[in-house]
Amino acid sequence: MDLVRHLNFFVAVAEEGHFGDAAARLEMTQPPVSQGLRRLEKELGVALIRRTSRGADLTPAGRELLPRARLLVDDARRLTAEARRLADRADVLRWGAVPQLGAALTAVCAAQVAATATDQDMVTEPASGLVAQVIAGSLDVAVIDHPCVTGTLTAGTVVRLPRWVVVPADHAAASAARPRLRQLADLSLCLPPRAWNPPAHDQLLDGLREHGLDSAARPIASDTELVAAVTGGSAFGLTAHRELFAAVASVRCVTMSDDVTALRLKVIHRSPDHAALTGELTSALRSHVAGSGYAG
């Protein structure tokens, strides 16, 4: 017996109070509804509906079982709808990246995904949010900054992305032949909020301290906010995308202590089905970085 189908008959008759109206609601004739209800009652061993001259009334057992029957029918409908949604999007690759990845590297990753999937959905979020989504299964892969707590997820090898130091145009470091991090002691450091990725945040500050720079952190969420803070003359920051600042006369991009200031990226996934894509994305990122003059 198709339990869910026959429970649906029961719910329709109970709510309509009439076999004919229930059949019309179910878009079928009355006899199959009556026969199906009788089969359900036989299977359950209790009478659910009392047939009257006015139509159909619930028995005591029917009144008690109706709420549970509604839940089962509704759950079955939701299950079917979700399964159809998943089937419709089976070929959609869901991936994410941290905001620091930038437009050029995002395009590199999108092109690699397009080579393996018929469609893709992409989100930009801090590493902490991306990790949570990959763990939950709402994302297939993600590009995050390293180090990061990833639990049981699998990660590709780390890709090192050199970054420039963005300083005020009138600061001594902007015109120095060999600028040093210690020269920035009078400036605060603009960087994403610690909550975005605590390990990466702390590692950067520790590395700067080892080079004699203990700057106060100023949280920013975008390159636009970085430009505003540095233009104000009291802050500096880091960027892997020097081209965004080329036309901004109030700031300069200089290179300092590449190993400390570099952005480190890695691709993470949960399902073994996406292990190959993680490797392909990692290779694509590394090739683009090597061939695009990031260090210059």
TrEMBL record:
Belongs to the LysR transcriptional regulatory family. PROSITE patterns: HTH_LYSR (PS50931). The lineage of its organism: Bacteria, Bacillati, Actinomycetota, Actinomycetes, Mycobacteriales. This is HTH-type transcriptional regulator TfdS. GO terms for molecular function: DNA binding; DNA-binding transcription factor activity. Keywords: Activator, DNA-binding, Transcription, Transcription regulation. It comes from the Bacteria. GO terms for cellular component: protein-DNA complex. The gene is tfdS. Residues 1-59 form the HTH lysR-type domain.
